[in-house]
Amino acid sequence: MRVSRLTRINRERARESVDTLELREKFGVIGDSKSERDGSVSLLSGEAEEAILTPGGLCTAKFTANIVTQGLDYHLLAAGGRIEIANTELQITRVGKPCYEACAILQSGDTCPLPTNCAFAQVTRGGEIQIHDEITLSNIAQ
Predict the structure, then answer these.
(1) Which domain holds residue 20?
(2) Into how many domains does the chain fold?
(3) What is the pLDDT of residues 43-78, one digit of tens each?
(4) What is the residue-averaged pLDDT of the chain?
(5) Alpha-carbon distance 89 to 85, whole Å?
(6) What's 10's domain CATH number?
(7) CB of 95 within 8 A of CB of 74?
(8) 16-25, 71-80, 107-116: least confident range
């Protein structure tokens, strides 16, 4: 399990890919205007993102995670569980999100992977993360 891409929304509301993110307790992703407002960090399965892009899912234009992962099984995550990336720790606050009603995948009747392959977290131990950093499940909520 590892980090495959990192992004943040700058002050002009433009999403930018970066090599490094600084995470801070209670503030989330430093330099991310949304994260700094509510302290949340968003995660998305890279495998699910690929599956969404192919049929033209709307969610890839509306939802872009701070941390895109490779090899992380989101079915193992639950609210209250913790993951470690490099020297940081994140506590999962929510797993999944509803689909967008206007999405072509949802309208076609197909199953979209987004609702079960993304998560939101709060930073419990800050630090810096980079692309390719390993992800460890440190405390899975039961």
Answers:
(1) 2-139
(2) 1
(3) 999 998 888 776 565 565 667 799 999 999 999 999
(4) 88
(5) 6
(6) 2.40.33.20
(7) yes
(8) 107-116
